[in-house]
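The records we work with from here on pair a chain with its fold. These numbers are not coordinates but entries in a learned vocabulary of local backbone shapes. To see the layout at work, look at the sequence and tokens printed below.

. . .
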Amino acid sequence: MRIVIAEDDLLLREGLALLLRAESLDVVAAVGHPDDFLAAVDKHRPEAAIVDVRMPPTHTDEGITAAVAARRRHPGLAVLVLSAYVEQAFATQLLTDGGSHLGYLLKERVGRVTEFLDALHRVAGGGTAMDPEVIAQLLTRTRSDTRVDRLTARERDVLALMAEGLGNSVIAERLSVTDGAVHKHIRSIFAKLDLSPTDRVDRRVTAVLRYLEDSRHRA
């Protein structure tokens, strides 16, 4: 897998590169500026990119902006965004640009090597990987009457784990229920969010996006 890293912290950037190369992954570029990131993506056409949210020159949303631009230039590029702390609006901004091959993790997860690598491979394989802390904060938001409010507590638990990019079997294991129970909960979630089986979209991704979008508007 060819990977481009965009991180302005030199130590973290070099550490990520060393970690990934130790796992026999091909880090083709590691840069500290969003313009250099876009140039590297155009040149190397990687399968995946790891991008910091806040980058020069203003250290606000340059990383997210660059990630969105890179995916528009190269559809299908997997992007794993890193942030020092939860920035829900930025997570939603990236996910609403297209719901597959995307992940959003806190930088502290990098130290948990197995979790970090699992998230990277998940987004490279076409899935999503949302940081559990982002999901936890979304779950604690107070909401008014919306489609998301139709969900039961267990259905919200299932949806939160779906947002992390987990499959049905793993969700069942996390919640100590059967695969059949998870499948039943997901069918109910789709129905309550008005997601028809005939929709020409990925209903799992759409359910997660509606959940995140609702929370952003009520932040």
Confidence is low (pLDDT under 50) at residues 141-145. The chain has two domains: 2-131, 141-217. The first strand starts at residue 2 and ends at 6.
